[in-house]
Amino acid sequence: MTVELISIGDELLIGQTVNTNAAWLGNQLAAMGAKITKTVTVPDQKNPILRAIQAIESDLCIVTGGLGPTNDDITKKLLADYFEMELVLHPPTLAHIESFFSKRNRPMLQANIDQAKLPDGCEILPNRFGTAAGMWFTHEGGHIISLPGVPYEMKDIFEQEIRLRITERFQVNEMYHRTVLTHGIGESFLAQKIANWENALLADGLSLAYLPSPGLVKLRVSSPKGISEQAKVEHYLNALKSIIPKELFGVEQQTMAEVVGQLLKEQEKTIGTVESCTAGNLAAAMVEIPGSSDYFRGSLLTYQTLLKTELLDIPEDFIAANDVVSEAVAIRMAEAGRNKLSTDYCLSTTGIMGPSQGDSKDQVGTVWVGLSGPNGVMAKCFHFGDNRARNIEMTKLAALNLLRLTLLQENS
Amino acid sequence: MTVELISIGDELLIGQTVNTNAAWLGNQLAAMGAKITKTVTVPDQKNPILRAIQAIESDLCIVTGGLGPTNDDITKKLLADYFEMELVLHPPTLAHIESFFSKRNRPMLQANIDQAKLPDGCEILPNRFGTAAGMWFTHEGGHIISLPGVPYEMKDIFEQEIRLRITERFQVNEMYHRTVLTHGIGESFLAQKIANWENALLADGLSLAYLPSPGLVKLRVSSPKGISEQAKVEHYLNALKSIIPKELFGVEQQTMAEVVGQLLKEQEKTIGTVESCTAGNLAAAMVEIPGSSDYFRGSLLTYQTLLKTELLDIPEDFIAANDVVSEAVAIRMAEAGRNKLSTDYCLSTTGIMGPSQGDSKDQVGTVWVGLSGPNGVMAKCFHFGDNRARNIEMTKLAALNLLRLTLLQENS
Description:
With 412 residues, chain A is an alpha/beta fold.
């Protein structure tokens, strides 16, 4: 099965928006065994879109963008003309659009009603999160799917309406993929540590990809689909656990916050945070996980130094004597938080995220993470770089990982 | 001047890497007045690359990727064959590669020496940061540039070797772009409200693009570059301010948090947050802005309902009587926060983000945002949708916008 992607939008061509839709779709389709032969981006103009559609050479083409209610959105009309279909009112889509606006107490305009007029010969793919429905056109053995460009709408339609239909309609040489997630070890060091394992895996006909992102390296093991191949993959993944037992923290789409949340839930423990340099990012990451209210109680964000005295009762002279970014202050923060938030565990963060120096005498990129729990309190120091956003992300991961390792150890 | 971009690489097609090179190049070239007509991504294979090159229709094509030392990098050989050139050793490039490896104390392989063999009829574009030189081919009036895919190498070659040559070799009609940011009005409703303005603008030879993202619609006004055209654009932007004075909140790359931070700084006011449903996202957004410690003091994240009693002294029966997601509780939260955090203003959030119902009897997507300040306290209700991540994002924007409007009003 071959697939092409066409992305429509001036904002993509002039780089105002990075084309993450093509990357996401390519990733999903490749994992399903499709071969992505080409992706093309064209402007919001009739002739370039038409030429791109006429040039399709693959079994399936997914077109994203150009389905909004405004005048520059021309994809629907153009596809209807191309396939010689009429635009007719589609009552279920109209009902959905009406409910969409009434739920939000927003008036509905003619342009929104017009979004319910859809080509009469295509399959309608409902859009739960927006007003532009997806469309599946089948024509002389070829398939063209048109989706809105808004990423979360596009992804939801793909998951709800497209994934299953593809497996039903196309011969895919499905690959079996398993991804494991590691933290706390760099890509080249990891490669060295697992070199023997990797060589055995390759000799056994499997393949391995390293997928690094800030603070994480994902390892994807792939094999052709088949029961014995799947067993082989599982065998290697089990072996990997004993090579990097501390670094391997999760699988597939899991996040560190999800893994930690699962452990807290299993152990029936509660958590809170006292954050300075991460200023809510740690709490936000935990609360992103549905069901987090079972274990996450809340936080004190003592961003300004004086608030560490006012809210946490850490004396001003204690902070001045130790430096606000220090082991002693991280420990006092974690202890005060556990006490004031009445939780089993409390994580604390204090560091210098840059670009400016702040109240600390330490170097930009220095972070102390504290953790207090039923068995005592500790703090750990990290040295990150100059990039503020990356430092915040790295601190979040390091703090969650400290909690993860502690929960695993205390329960073993 | 028209430009196409060709990106080479399997990792782009399968979404392992997001194509930021095309976005960056598109952005630079559009700002220089070029019209980007198409971008194409093809695999590391001879025929697809060749077909993409044969299909070029623009004055200039920039090809990125496929210039590395390994066997899957075939771009250089392919372009040399296509233009019927020989690969000959280029002594300055060899000297650069030798120094590159000796500086790093790394052994040099034959594959690296081969990188100094370059097509004998093209201009060599030195790569200061890597071993793959760029190449500029001129053929029958058309121009093809080949660059490495490593982003910082590609960008440096563009800045050092390409930017100036483009202005010398092409007639560029530089465009003048200005982007304004709106919040609190949907795309189609906005289009209706500014229809007359838009029509006048179009009749005046300018162009307008709507760029929606969750909670925001950006409007980009463009014109050919020239003093009178720039004045025209500014004239229309000024006129727009009086049509949507409340909704228009910023320009270009600004964020809502940045705009609000600027107002707080100017008015020398401090802010804190008491967050339930946003659980740190509001604080995190404010702290993302460098210099935010001047005005942002800290937060109380009372995620679990009981913590609103323990930390904020809101009686349990008061919460039970009003519902935890209510105007009364949002107001009490904002008041308690302003008091406990000793700030001029305090924002509060309480809502049901979904998917589960939580402690409230209200509908998923319902959010109350409270704001207390020197002139009193208020709360506003919002109805968002079913998507947890999006609801958090929308609440964050709505809360910051409430503060923005209040700061503007109280200072006017």
